[in-house]
Specification:
globular; six-stranded mixed beta sheet; about 260 residues; Rossmann fold; 12 strands; alpha/beta
Length: about 260
């Protein structure tokens, strides 16, 4: 009988600090294929620092992070880039480039050291742009696009990377309501295809709607990690955000309403 597959992502006794400040006390959690994990917490609680640690860009201050059962150094940079992709909170786009050229950046982990993108890479990039509603913008200069359009191109670059694990820092930045839901539905579809998704969100109601698991940071070192149903408790959320919230249900959906 074959051994069970390793989780896509594991945090084992993970704790984070910045200088003398404790961002989160030790916690453990594993994310399997087909699951979505949402990071919640007030501004400055350490959500981006935690996401970067889970992406292997920052060493854990305590404990370990494993990608498919192995620490990031065991994978090496190129293999890790094929397995996981990170969407940063800010898209600098410092140089002129077309939307297609920007999406093609996602293909770099799959190319040899001196190789150029081929027809298959271009096809994948075009397909990625289409999935975020940017097919007609392939030839447009990225610097001529709106903030929301640039965000969607950045997401297309992640799709073109074709990782098994997506780590997204505020993926709804600059997006209007229509594209917020479209992007969340896109990543839910990707979990249905077997990918894992970790995302930082500010909207608790969207977390309740899309998350299988939640990590809640309270900004004082406290952390709650587990199933969305267990973590999204009105008393725990009220304490973390410093404002009283009430849990409600509407048409089968869970909502948290500020008093």
């Amino acid at each position: 009988m074959s051994a069970p597959a390793a989780p896509l992502l594991e945090a084992d006794g993970l704790a984070l600090r910045i200088g003398e400040r404790c961002l989160c006390r030790p916690f453990s959690l594993s994310l399997g294929a087909g699951e979505c994990l949402v990071l919640l917490g007030p501004n400055g609680a350490g959500k981006t620092t935690l996401l970067h640690t889970l992406a292997g860009l920052r060493a854990a201050d305590e404990g370990a992070v494993r990608l498919l059962g192995s620490a990031y150094p065991e994978h090496g940079p190129r293999d890790a880039a094929r397995l996981r992709a990170l969407l940063p909170q800010i898209q600098p786009d410092p140089f002129p480039a077309s939307a297609l050229e920007t999406a093609l950046i996602g293909r770099h982990p799959h190319l040899g050291r001196w190789a150029w993108e081929g027809p298959e890479d271009t096809r994948i990039a075009h397909q990625a742009l289409a999935r975020v509603g940017m097919a007609d913008f392939a030839g447009r200069d990225i610097l001529s696009l709106s903030g929301g359009e640039r965000q969607r191109v950045a997401i297309a670059a992640l799709l073109a990377q074709q990782p098994r694990l997506y780590l997204l820092d505020e993926p709804l930045n600059h997006l209007d309501l229509h594209y917020q839901i479209r992007v969340l539905e896109l990543f839910r579809a990707l979990t249905g295809e077997g990918a894992g998704v970790v995302m930082v969100l500010h909207d608790i109601d969207l977390a309740a709607r899309y998350a299988d698991q939640v990590i809640l940071l309270d900004g004082r070192g406290g952390v709650a990690a587990g199933s969305a149903g267990a973590v999204l408790d009105e008393d725990r959320l009220s304490d973390a955000y410093g404002h009283r919230l009430r849990r409600a249900e509407l048409n089968g959906r869970i909502l948290f309403i500020p008093e």
